[in-house]
Amino acid sequence: MKTAVSLLLMVLLFIGIATSKPSQEEGELSLKIGEVNYRITAWGNDAVRVQLSPNVPRPNLNVQALLPTAPRTTEVKISELSVENGNIRAEITHSSGSIQFIRVSDGQVLLTTQSTTFSLIPDDKNLYEAGITFIPSPKETGIYGLGGHTTGNLQNKPIQLLFQDSQIYSLSGGREINIPHYISYPLFYNFLWNLPSFGYLNLAQSSTTWFANSTYQIDFWISTLSKQNSTNPFTALMHNYVDVTGHPPVLPHYASGFWQSKNRYINQTEILDIAHGYYSRNIPLSVIVIDWYNWVNMGDWSFNPACWQNPTAMVQALKKNGTEVMVSLWPLVAPQSFNAPEMVKNGCLINNKYGTPLLWSYDSYTYDAFNPGARAFFWQAVKKGYYSHGIKTFWLDADEPQRFLPDQSGQYWYYEGQDLEVGMAYPLYHQRAIYDGLKSEGETEFLSLSRSAWAGSQRYHGAVWSGDIHSSFHQLYVQVRLAQNMALSGIYWWTTDIGGYWGGDIFDPVWRELIVRWFQFGAFCPLFRIHGDRNPAAPNNPVCGFSGGRNEIWEFGEKAQVAITDMINLRENNRPYIMNMMRVANQTGEPVLKPLLYYYSHDAVVVAGGSTIEGEYLFGHDWLVSPVTTYQATEWRVYLPELKGEPGKMWMDWFGKVKYNGGTWVNYKLNPNLRNFPLFVKST
After folding, report:
1. Which of 261, 379, 272 is nearest to 327 (CA)?
2. CB 426 within 8 A of CB 370
3. d(CA 100, CA 486)
C-alpha cells in the first residue's frame, strides 16, 4: 500500500490533474496540482519558502530552523503560478508541477524541481516519507556549508549524507555535524532544508535529492542576491540567512581569549593549581574547563561534594584573575540520579511509543529537550547545581544525543514526535534550555559549547566544537577545511580540540610538533581552546576518579612551550580585533573565519581552488592564515590573492615583516624552532 500511494502521488504530480484555483494572500501563493498542495511564501528579502504536502501545508512546523516570521523590505508580486520577492521568482510549470527558481536581475535559473515523492507512513494519516530532487544549473561548480564533515574537502560537491549517522557515536565519534544550509558558487544562492527529520542528502554533479524519513510536508527556503547588490555576495546571502534563522549575538569578551581544558580535571584543588600555573608564568587564561563526571551520577547536574568542596569560592578566586569557569553537562540521566524519579513521574524523559523511558548511552535515560517542562526542570537543576556558584558557561557534551550501534532509529519518542520526524533538532532545543534559563536570570553575555548543532543554533548563543577527533597531522589538515564549511553553514562560534582528542603522547616529538602547529591554527579560530585525552594517563583518584595525561603547555617541552606562548600572546593582543569582527558578524551575518573565495572570487587562482588554496583561509578582513599540516615541514607554499579594489595594500608576513604584492606565490621558509608559519596581514 505504501508503494502504491507513493507512485500514485508521483503520477498525479506530474500529469497535473485536478488543479485547484490559486489562493493569493499577503506574500503567499497557495494552490493544488493533482494531490499535492503548494504554498510558496515571500520569506525575508530576495527569498521564498516552499511547502509541499498531500495535506494542507502548515504555515509553521512545531520544530523548524526558520523563525516564525521574517523581516522583509522587498517588493512582492504574485501571479496565478509564480511568486516574485525582490530578486527571486519561483515559477510553477502547470503541466508538470515543477518549480523553477529564477534570479530576476539576470534571468539565471538557479534550481529546478524535477520530482517529488510522498509515501504515507502506515498507521499515521499525516506523516510521509518524502523526497524532492532538484536539477541545478550546469554553471554551479561549488557547494559550501552543510555543516562539519571529515571528508578533507572544502568544496562539497558531490557528497552523500545520512543525517542520523551523526548521532551514532560508534559511527561518527561526534565528529559529523549536519547543518542543512549551503551556498552555491558561482550562482550565489543559498538553500535551507527546513526539516529536522532523519533522512539523507545526495548531492551529485547533476542533481540534488533531499529525503525525509518522516514529515508532514516538504519545507525549504532559498534566497539570492538583491537587484542592486552592493555588498560582498557571500555576506549578502549570509545576511539573508540570519534574518530568517536568527542573528548570532556578539561573542562575550571573556570567550575571545585562551581556554584551558583536558579530560579531566578531577577536583577543585587541581583546577586552582592549573590556573595558578598560568598566572605564575604570566600566560593569559580566559576560561578553564571542568569536564564530565564532576557529578556523582549522570543527571545530577551538580558537583560531587567530595571533590568540589566549595565551588563558589573557587569560581570567585578564578574570576578575580580574569578567568571564567565552564562546566560540562550531559543530557543523560542515570536511574540512580536523585533527579530521575521526578523526571520519570513528570514525563521529562525520552520514551518508547508506549510511554516507557528508554535507556541510551551509559545505561542512562536522556531528558526530552523538546518538552518545555523538561527544559525548565533541567534548567532549575543546572541553576541550583552550577549557576548558583557563579558559572554561566556550559559545555553541552554528547548532545546529538549520543547513542551507539545497533541504531534504533524510530523507537524513540519525543514531546514533539518520533525521532524520525524531529531528531536532528535535539541539540537546538538543548541549547535553548540553557538560553532560556540564563535569559530568565537576566544574563546577556554567555555561550554554551555543544558537540552538535542544527540550523538556527546561533540564535541560542550556541558555540560548536568538532567532536572527538584523533591527534594527527591528517586530522589537522581536515579541520582547516571543516572550519570553513562550518562558518558558511551559519555556525559563528566554532572551535576544535587543539592537539586532537584521542591519543597524543606528550613525550612524543611528533605530537609535540603537532601541538604547536595546532595552536597556530587555533589562535585564528573563533574560539581558542585546548582539550584532549593525553597519554600517559594519570593514575585514578580513589575518590574523584580517572584522569587523562597532563595537557598544560609547560608539559610539552621548552621548545613547544615557547612557540605556544607566542600564539597565546598573539591571540591576547588580537582580542580587540576579534571582538570587532564578532560585532560585524552580529550585524551582517559575515563569519569571522571564511574561505579565500569569500573575498577573492575575482582571482582566477583562488577560483581554481585545489589543496593549497583550500588550506588557506581568511580571519576577519585582514588576516590570511595557512596552517602547516605536515610533520617536519621546512617550507610551505602559499598563495596571496590579488588585492583588487584595495589600492596601496600589500600582504605582510607577520613574522618576517616582508611585504608582497597580491597575486603572488610564496615558498615560505619555516624556522626549525617552530616559531613561525605562513601568517599574513594586510599592510600599506
Report:
1. 261
2. yes
3. 28
* C-alpha cell at position 126: 499525516
Provide the angle, in degrees to the nearest 10, between the axes of the packed helices 558-588 and 509-522: 30
- In single-letter form, the type of residue at position 1 comes to M
Name which of 3-7, 530-534, 629-633 the model is least confident about: 3-7
What's the half-sphere exposure (Cβ side, CA atoms, 13 Å) at 6?
16
Which cell is 232 given? 560582498
195 and 425 in contact (C-beta within 8 Å)?
Answer: no
Q: Provide the 10 A C-beta neighbour count for residue 106.
A: 10
- Dist. CA 585–CA 268, nearest whole Å: 36
State pTM to two decimals.
0.96
Residue 20: predicted pLDDT: 62
Angle between helices 233-245 and 558-588 in degrees, nearest 10: 70
Q: What is the DSSP letter of 551?
A: -
Task: Indicate the SS3 state at residue 324.
Answer: strand
Is the pLDDT at 558 greater than 70? The verdict is yes
How much is the average pLDDT of 357-373?
A: 94
Q: Residue 307: CA atoms inside 13 Å, Cβ hemisphere, count?
A: 22
Number of Cβ within 10 Å of residue 602's Cβ equals 11
Can you tell me the distance from the alpha carbon of 354 to that of 373, in angstroms, rounded to the nearest whole number? 20
Helices (H), 338-401: 340-345, 372-385
Q: How many CA atoms lie within 13 A of 201 on its CB side?
A: 22
Average pLDDT over residues 407-433: 93
Cα–Cα distance measured from residue 97 to residue 100, given in angstroms and rounded to the nearest whole number: 10
Instruction: Find, among 257, 309, 312, 313, the residue nearest to 288 by Cα.
Output: 257
Phi, psi of 218 (to 5 degrees): -80, 140
What integer pLDDT is reported at residue 201 of this predicted model?
98
Q: What are phi and psi of 625, to 5 degrees?
A: -120, 130
Strands 128-136 and 142-148: unpaired
What is the DSSP secondary structure assignment for residue 307, as one 8-state letter? T
C-alpha to C-alpha distance for 582 and 388, rounded to whole angstroms: 29
pLDDT at 169 over 80: yes
Residue 283 is predicted with a pLDDT of 98
78 alpha-carbon distance from chain centroid: 35
Phi, psi for residue 84 in degrees, rounded to 5: -115, 125
Average pLDDT of span 156-161: 96
- Crossing angle of helices 268-280 and 311-320, in 10° steps, is 10
Q: What is the pLDDT of residues 1-32, one digit of tens each?
A: 333 344 334 433 443 444 566 766 679 999 99
Q: Which residues participate in catalysis according to the annotation? A: 397, 400, 468
Beta-carbon contacts of 346 under 8 Å, excluding residues fewer than 6 positions away, are 373, 374, 377
Alpha-carbon radius of gyration of the chain: 25
SS3 603: coil
Cis ω before 536 (30° cut-off from 0): yes
Q: Please tell me the least confidently modeled range out of 16-30, 347-361, 503-517, 654-668.
A: 16-30
Phi and psi at residue 438, in whole multiples of 5°?
A: -70, -40
Q: What is the mean pLDDT of residues 588-594?
A: 98
Confidence of residue 247 (pLDDT cuts 50, 70, 90): very high
**Cβ neighbour number for residue 550 with a 10 Å cutoff:** 17
Inter-helix orientation angle 426-440/372-385, to 10°: 60
Interatomic CA distance for residues 40 and 43, integer angstroms: 9
DSSP, res 53: E
Q: What is the mean pLDDT of residues 527-537?
A: 97
Bridge partners (DSSP) listed for residue 148? 177
Q: Is 616 helix (H, G, I), strand (E, B) or coil?
A: coil
- Cα–Cα distance for residue pair 556/328, rounded to 1 Å: 25
589 close to 242: Cβ distance less than 8 angstroms: yes
